[in-house]
Design a protein that fits this description.
4 helices; alpha+beta; single chain
């Protein structure tokens, strides 16, 4: 997402700017996209917490570009000593975690997907515990898992 962060005296007033350093140079935090402003507090907490802990994250993907969502998941696996419980609607996060399993960066038993599905009559919710194999492929997911995305893809391809 970025290579570094620095504080600098503002060019327009006597304040301070937060600059995000990327391969393209330094940019004011207010001018960068990708939801950097949304994810920065989380990355700060992850990087400044010395002892391994469990982070509980609720929809860390909100306002974050899909590429940055995937990079966040990759960062949590490869660079962080912490554990995570993540409530997400992001396929980008889930797919990157599955890819980490396929690339042998994350052990399959370390990734658990809980899929919440409404009962057919709407009277409650079923929770499916979906594991993944060594290739990151979901093992015995319910028929409705990713059904929406598959249907949309078929429609886009003119198959439905």
């Amino acid at each position: 997402m970025w290579d570094g962060i620095e504080l600098a005296k503002s060019k327009s007033n006597d304040g301070i700017e937060v600059l995000i350093k990327t391969f393209q140079g330094s940019h004011n935090l207010l001018d960068v996209g990708c939801g950097v402003h949304s994810i920065l507090p989380l990355v700060h907490a992850i990087t400044t917490t010395d002892n391994p802990i469990t982070f509980l994250l609720q929809q860390p993907e909100v306002h974050v570009h899909p590429v940055s969502q995937a990079e966040l998941a990759q960062y949590m696996v490869e660079e962080s000593p912490h554990d995570y419980i993540v409530e997400t609607h992001s396929d980008h996060i889930v797919d990157r975690l599955r890819l980490c399993v396929a690339r042998r960066v994350l052990q399959p038993e370390k990734l658990v997907i809980l899929y919440f599905e409404n009962n057919e009559d709407g009277s409650g919710t079923n929770i499916h515990n979906i594991s993944v194999d060594s290739q990151g492929v979901p093992v015995n997911p319910p028929d409705t898992y990713r059904e929406f995305f598959l249907t949309e893809t078929h429609r886009l391809l003119g198959l439905e």
